[in-house]
Write a structure and sequence with these properties.
alpha+beta; Immunoglobulin-like; six-stranded mixed β-sheet; 13 helices; C2_domain_sf; coiled coil; CEP120-like
């Protein structure tokens, strides 16, 4: 019993691959086939080293496992490249695993792809094959039990918020572990003016109108708009993360009533529509594993107060609901990134980049330019709070306070302060209160190629000294672009902190442009080539809409966001457009800077002691007279102190730079030593391998010499055997010649005997021919006698009538057969006609639905054209129908007349043929009943045709064809009564 119950799992572990070509538009899918069952992995990115890290397993008992091992069964692993655009799968190679090598130990090995499509790359995949004890189908049973219970009691499936993970849990956490992203996007709306009630007053509409809906208990509103006739608003996507399984989520969504979207004016709802969710996931569908499941449609907004709308002008809203399964790679990236917002704060599309936490694993670039921006960060205000930057972008400088050269000239104010018992004087330099603290961020989202057919590796570069940094800003790494393809730019977000006057900011943005350079990294020339430049419209952000914002220190300010697409012109001077860059500019004004005071030292003090004694109080002295030398002025002293401070900071920066250089050189030296040791180890290993190969070659050489000696001995034996074979061949040839001579003599004797027999047979043939001629003459005389006898018999009236009756009977059978074929063709024609009418009605409905989505002017023109087309088509169909009906009616009349003539002939023949009187009496009731039965069938057929035409919905009782059928039915009834 224990042996029968013991079960195993055959597990194929697919870890990854190497030496694959990079194909951004494709996904890699690996199928494994064993014992007629096919299992597939989830799609992963088709990169040079794809990371799969998935396991596929088959369940077998111990006996079945032994049988497969005895039969030397194998597992075939096939790799496919899945095109995400055309959804086509192409096989790129396969590998074969031997089941006999599977053990309980988990090991992996690199396997080359057999019959690989990538001939230039020796693609390999890392596979592992091992056995594991099967603990049972507990998880599967839980899912089945959960699905069964949820169908009976759908209230048991309730989403539970997990704040630490930032997702909603649907189903048991130990079973439902897949991550899904559900997003809702409101794209557009039309004819919203129909929702304004005529009797109920609306609140103040100055705040605008907006759409509102609830997603998992979270209230979501989109951007407000004021024009209901032509509403213009940016599409916004609200998404929520769900942790569940596909089966449980399908049951949950099938029981949901849908998402109700309201059009609101402040807190008043003007109308609503419902977007169903029960059709988002179909039972048994696996489409979500290949691509997101999208429900895109236009939904009619129903007003809360009933109103009469003209046909074709219903208010509608375009909504897109998408559900996608989060990949394993994306889930790992999300774990390393900042925590996701909990579903109360839904992720709406904005022009801001999320904060990314700093990473310890910083990759240092090879150029000094990439480090310049980072080193300048030492000249920052230690009290200023830095915002999080992208840790993977060393070329992007952190937010810094601009150098003093941006500030206006410094004013010197001498104030007298009075206190009890004594008078003290302090010398102050006050920074004007008009200086504002600005944060300006530039986000180069993506780039789209316009010209050229070749793929290019490009990066973007720009510099703007007004922001306080003269170091160039670069995007890295390089990306590949081609014509008509939009590519996202990595590490393209940069923010600057600086202080200046508002007027100075506006004047600089208007006069000084910011140029973005597009460079191509040409590896063949080992240098970078400038492709073109694009001008960022900095002045446009000054006219953008201002919104309130709050920083991390609870300080409030104003934010302005501007989005645009910038064209890149070629540097060749022919005004050719090279590419298009999608840019998001954001400027935040945190208000005026608080007044700062810089204490001045005594003029008699040395310049070296000035910073140390600047905070001391001095005895009051009368205001000095205007000095004769400009170097003795306070302004000069302040500028001198600032220059000295600048030199000190530069020295400090140089020291830090040297220290970093020493550190990096030390790291490089350690890395060099480490790699030198590794090379030594590899060299020793290769030397030992080469010695082993040399020994193997010596052994192989000795074996070859031995085999060569054996071959010489065998060649001598072959020569001896060949001589023996030649002698045997000559002996057999002599024997064959003697045998052929004997056979020839025997054949000549037989030929003579056959000639004698032929002459005898020719005599017999001539005798038989004479007998045949005599028989033919006798046969001709007998035929003449028979024909005379038949003429005598045919002259009798009974025989002639009998033959005529037979001929008429045959004609009647032929007519009945033709009538049946005409009836069948009529039924087939009616079926085809009904289908055509239904298809015509369906096409009419589709055309009406398409016409409603177009503009009113085009709708009216298309409606008139459609009506003309339908009228002409109905006229043609009616003409064809009438023609067919007339032909059928004529055919029926002809058949009826033929049958009546046949009956009259039969009645006339009754008097002449007394022998057939009883048969005619038995046939007479049938002949009397035939016209009546024919009338009934004709009436029934006409009624069925009329009902079929009315059921199609195309014709009514007032149409001409229906009236003609009614008239024919009445005439047929009157004929039957008469």
């Amino acid at each position: 019993m224990p042996d029968k119950e013991e079960r195993f799992l055959i597990v194929v572990s697919i870890l990854g691959g190497r030496s694959f070509p990079k194909r951004p538009q494709h996904k890699l899918i690996i199928d494994t086939k064993f014992d007629g069952e096919l299992l597939s992995t989830d799609p992963v990115d088709h990169t040079e080293r794809p990371n799969v890290t998935q396991e596929l397993a088959w369940q077998l008992d111990k006996k079945g496992l032994q049988q497969h091992r005895l039969h030397r069964s194998s597992i075939k692993v096939q790799c496919y490249a899945y095109d995400t655009i055309s959804t086509m799968k192409e096989m790129i190679g396969y590998a074969v695993l031997d089941l006999r090598s599977a053990t309980m130990k988990q090991t992996s090995k690199w396997y080359p792809l057999l019959h690989s499509k990538y001939t230039r790359h020796k693609a390999e995949i890392q596979l592992g094959l091992y056995l594991d004890h099967d603990t049972g189908d507990e998880v599967g049973k839980k899912l089945e039990d959960l699905a069964g219970v949820s169908i009976k009691h759908p209230n048991l499936l309730c989403p539970v918020l997990n704040e630490s993970g930032g997702y909603y849990q649907i189903g048991p956490p130990d079973v439902c572990k897949d991550i899904f992203i559900l997003s809702v996007t409101i794209g557009y709306a039309t004819n919203l003016a129909q929702l304004i009630p005529g009797s109920t007053p609306l609140p103040d509409s100055s705040a605008g109108y907006h759409f509102y809906y609830s997603l998992f208990g979270n209230n979501v509103t989109n951007e407000s708009f004021s024009n209901l006739i032509r509403p213009e608003f940016a599409p916004e996507r609200a998404s929520v993360k769900i942790r569940s399984s596909l089966q449980v989520l399908s049951v949950f969504l099938s029981k949901q009533p849908g998402i109700q979207i309201h059009l609101c004016c402040k807190d008043v709802s003007l109308g609503r529509c419902e977007v169903p969710l029960n059709t988002l996931l179909q039972d048994g569908s696996t489409e979500i594993y290949m691509q997101p499941v999208v429900l895109d449609g236009t939904y009619q907004i129903l007003p809360l107060t009933p109103s009469k709308n003209s046909e074709g002008s219903y208010p509608v809203v375009g909504v897109t609901v998408a559900l996608r399964k989060e990949d394993v790679g994306n889930a790992d990236k999300n774990k390393q990134a900042a925590p996701q917002l909990v579903p109360e704060k839904l992720d709406q599309e904005e022009g801001e980049k999320p904060n990314v936490p700093k990473s310890d694993n910083i990759e240092y670039s090879n150029t000094f330019e990439d480090k310049t921006g980072e080193s300048i960060s030492s000249i920052t205000d230690p009290g200023n709070e830095k915002k999080a930057q992208n840790p993977d972008a060393p070329s992007i400088p952190p937010k810094t306070i601009s150098p003093p050269k941006v500030n206006p000239p410094v004013n010197v104010n001498v104030s007298d302060s009075k206190s009890t018992g004594e008078s003290l004087t302090k010398n102050h330099v006050a920074i004007p209160a008009q200086l504002h603290h600005f944060t300006f961020s530039i986000d180069l989202n993506s780039i789209t190629g316009i010209e050229g057919t070749n793929t290019k590796n490009i990066f973007l570069r720009y510099v703007y000294p007004f922001f306080g940094s003269v170091a160039p800003i670069l995007t890295h790494p390089t990306v590949e672009i081609s014509k008509g393809v939009e590519v996202l730019l990595p590490h393209s977000f940069c923010a600057f902190d600086f202080a200046c006057l508002i007027d100075q900011l506006q004047e600089t943005f208007i006069r000084v442009p910011l140029f973005v350079e597009v460079w191509e990294r040409d590896r063949s020339l080992a240098k970078d080539v400038l492709l073109g430049t694009g001008r960022l419209p900095l002045a446009q952000i000054l006219a953008a809409e201002k919104t309130r914002t709050v920083n991390s220190t609870n300080g409030s300010g104003w934010r302005q966001v501007y989005r645009d697409s910038v064209l890149v012109s070629s540097v060749s001077g022919n005004s050719q457009k090279v590419a298009s860059i999608s840019v998001v500019l954001t400027m935040e004004d945190w208000g005026p800077i608080h007044e700062q005071e810089i204490l001045l030292s005594n003029h008699s003090s040395s310049l070296q002691k000035a910073p140390e004694e600047g905070n001391k109080n001095y005895n009051a002295i009368p205001p000095p007279e205007e000095p004769k030398d400009i170097r003795e002025t306070r302004e000069y002293q302040i500028a001198l102190e600032l220059e000295m401070w600048k030199e000190m900071q530069q020295q400090k920066f140089e020291n830090e730079l040297k220290q970093k250089e020493i550190t990096y050189m030390k790291v490089l030296a350690d890395e060099w030593k480490k790699r030198d040791k590794e090379r030594e180890v590899v060299l020793q290993k290769k030397l030992s391998e080469y010695n082993q190969l040399e020994d193997q070659l010596n052994k192989a050489l000795k074996n070859l010499e031995k085999k060569e000696r054996e071959l010489i001995i065998k060649e001598k034996e072959i020569v001896h055997l060949r001589n023996d074979h030649e002698r045997e061949h000559e002996r057999k040839m002599i024997e064959m010649k003697e045998a052929s001579q004997r056979l020839q003599e025997d054949c000549e004797h037989r030929i003579q005997l056959e000639r004698i027999k032929v002459s005898e047979m020719e005599g017999l043939i001539s005798k038989y021919k004479q007998e045949l001629i005599d028989a033919e003459k006798k046969y001709a005389s007998l035929e003449k006698e028979i024909s005379l006898f038949k003429e005598q018999q045919n002259s009798k009236p009974e025989v002639r009538l009998h033959s005529e009756i037979n001929m008429l009977t045959l004609e009647k059978v032929e007519l009945e057969r033709k009538l049946d074929s005409v009836t069948k063709s009529k039924i087939h024609y009616k079926q085809q006609w009904g289908r055509a009418l239904k298809e015509l009605a369906r096409l009419k409905q589709r055309e009406q639905a398409t016409a409603k989505a177009q503009l009113k002017r085009q709708q009216q023109e298309l409606e008139e054209m459609r009506l003309r087309y339908i009228a002409n088509e109905e006229k043609e169909s009616m003409k064809n129908d009438k023609k067919e009906l007339e032909e059928i009616k004529n055919e029926l009349n002809r058949l009826r007349l033929a049958e009546e003539q046949l009956q009259l002939q039969q009645q006339q023949q009754q008097h002449a043929a007394a022998l057939f009187k009883e048969k005619q009496i038995t046939r007479s009731p049938r002949s009397y009943q035939t016209p009546v039965n024919g009338h009934d069938e004709h009436i029934t057929r006409l009624i069925e045709e009329r009902d079929i035409l009315l059921r199609t919905g195309v014709y009514t009782s007032q149409d001409r064809i229906i009236a003609d059928l009614d008239q024919q039915i009445k005439e047929a009834i009157s004929q039957r009564k008469s």
